[in-house]
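User
New here, help please:
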Amino acid sequence: MAMKYTVHFLSLFLLLNGCKSAQQIHDPGYAQVSQAVHQAAYSPTQETVNPVAADLEGPHSVEEYIQYALSQNPDIQAARKRVEANAYQVPVASSLQDPNLGMTFYPEQVQTAAGPQEFALNISQKFPARGKLNAQGELAESQTNETRAQLAAVELATVAKVKRAYYELYFIQQTINVTEADKQLLVEIRDVANVRYKTGKVSQQDLLRAELEISNVENELIRLEQKLVSGQAKLARLLHISPQTKLLALEHIEPGSLPADLDWLQRQAIASRPELHAQLATLEKDRQALNLARLAYKPDVTLGATWIDVGSTGVSPVANGNDSFLITAGINLPVYRKKLDSAVRSAEAKAVSTARTYDSLKDETLEEVADLFAQAKSQQDLLTLFSEDILPKARQTLEVSSQAYNTGEVDFLQLVDNWRELLRFEVSYLRLEASLGQSLAELERVIGGSDTQNLQPIPAAPEAFNNLPLPEEPE
C-alpha cells in the first residue's frame, strides 16, 4: 500500500512539474507579444502608433535607411523567427517520442495463487525502425534551409523596396527644386513682359499668359508636395517608423553602375537568387519526405515493462505475495500496402512538381534579368542623350528665344513654350535618373545581391539645370 501512494505522489509530481515548465517564456519577443495581446483585450480602443524617428529625419543616404530596415522591418523579423522556429524543430523531429506510463487499479482484487493483485504499473517506449529518426531530422533540417533561403529573399526584396522608395523620394525632391527654380525664371520673364507692356511694346495678353503659367506651376508644386508626403510615408512603412517622420534623400546621389555582361548577370542570378535556393531546399525536403514514406514499410518496435503489486494474503495456501514483473514487446504491422504505396507515389509527384516549379522560376529569372538589363541600358543611353544633346539644346533654345523676345522677333507664346519644354526635359531627366536607380535595385534583387565586378560607370548628372541668361529688361 505504501508503494501505491509513492507511485501516486510521483505521478502527480511529474504532472505538476511538466505544467510549470510549459508556462515558462524563453523568447523575449513572445513576452512582448503576449503583453500586447493582453493590452488589446482589455483596452481595445488604445492604439499604438510607431514613434517618429527623429534621428532619421532630414537628408540621409540610402545605405543608412537600408541598415535600419534590415534591423526593424517586420517582414524580415517575421522571416527570421520562422527560421528560428524551424531550427528548433530539428531536435524535436529526430528524438524519440515520450515513453508511456500507465497504471491499472483493480476495483475488486484479482485472486491468484501467489496472492491478490491490487495494482499494476506499466511503462513502454516506441523505437522507430532504423533510419526513421535520421530521416525525420533531415526533413526538418530541409525545412529550416528552405526558410533560410526565404529569409534571404525577404531581405533582398526589402532592400530593393527601400531603394525604389528612396529614389522616388529623390525624384520628387529634385523635381520640386527644379520647378521652383523654373518658377523664379518665369516670374522674371513675367516682370520683363510687364515692363514691355507698360512701354506699349506688347499687349496685356503676354502679361496675363505669364500669370496663368505661374499659377499652373504653383498648382504643380502643391501636387508635388503631396507626393513628397506620400513618398515619405511609404519609406517610413518599410523602416517600421511613424509615417510622419520627415525622411529625405540626399541632394546628390552617386551615379549608379550597370554590369556590362548580360551572360554573367544571368549566371549570377541562377547561382545566387534566394528564391531559386528556396526551391532547391523545397525539393530536398520533398526527397526527404519521400525517403520517410518509403521507411514506413518497416515496422516500429515497442518495448515495455509491467510491475504488478501482489498482496501477501490470498485464498491459496501456497500464496507467497511476491510481486510480478513482466516484459512486453510488440511491433506495428504495415499491412495496408495500398495506403503506403499511395503515400510514396504522392511524395514522388510532389518532388517532380517542385522540380518543374524550379525550372519555371529559373526561366522567369532569366527573363527578368534580360528585361531589367535592357531597361537599365536604355535608361543609361537616354541619360547620356539628355545630358549631352537634349538639355543643352533646350537651354540654348530658351536663351535665344529670350533674347529674340526683347527685340520682338519672337512672340511671348513661343517663349513660354520653350520654357515649358525645358522644364519638361529637366523633369524627364530626373525621372530617368531615379528610374535607373530603381531598375538597378530590382536587378540587384534578382541576381541575389550586388557585385563590384564587371561594372561600367553611368554618366554623371549634368550641370545645374537653370543656369540660363534671362531676357533683358528694355531700357
In short: Strands lie at 58-60, 100-111, 116-127, 247-249, 257-259, 301-310, 324-331, 455-457. The two ends are 124 Å apart (CA to CA). Confidence is low (pLDDT under 50) at residues 451-466.
